[in-house]
Amino acid sequence: MPMMYGFGAQRKQILEAELGRLVDEMPQLGMVSMILVGPFVRGEVGPETVLDLVVVQETDEPVHRRADFWTTHLRPRIGMNFFVYTPDEFENPVGGDRMIHEAANNGERVYG
Question: Is 44 exposed, middle or buried (CB count within 10 Å of its CB: 0-12, 13-18, 19+)?
C-alpha cells in the first residue's frame, strides 16, 4: 500500500478546525464545559482518528439519548463521539465512570 506523506498533518488540521467550530457553536446550545479525550489528545492522528468529547450540560434526557442532541444540532463533518454528563454527574461520578476518569486524568479542557 502506498504511503501518503503529510496526511497526518492534514487530518490534524481538519480535526482542529472542527473542534474550533464546536467550541464556537455549542455554548449557545447549552454546553457548560467540554473536555477532549482519546487518541487526538495523545497526538495519535491517523485516517480513522475522531474527536472524543466529554460534554457537560444541563439536561433531562436519558443518558442513551444525550449524544443525539449534539449530533442532530451540529451535524458533525468528521467522526466524533459525544459523552454527555450533567454537571452533577460530572462532579460526583458514580461507580468510577471511565470517561470522567479519562477526562480528569488525561483530557484537555477546551471550553468552560
Answer: exposed
Q: Please state the φ and ψ torsions of residue 93, each to the nearest 5 degrees.
A: -65, 145
The C-alpha cell that represents 65 in the structure block:
439519548
Digit-by-digit pLDDT tens for the chain (112 residues) are 444 556 778 889 999 999 999 999 999 999 999 999 999 999 999 888 999 999 999 999 999 999 999 999 999 989 999 999 999 999 999 888 999 999 999 999 999 9
**In this structure, are residues 46 and 8 in contact, taking their beta carbons and an 8 Å threshold?**
yes
What domains sit in the chain, N to C, each tagged with a CATH number? 7-111 (3.30.460)
Main-chain dihedrals φ then ψ at residue 82, nearest 5 degrees: -105, 125
In whole angstroms, what is the distance from residue 16 CA to residue 11 CA?
Answer: 9
Q: How far apart are CA 85 and CA 70, in angstroms?
A: 12
Alpha-carbon torsion, ordered 59, 106, 108, 5, to 10 deg: -120
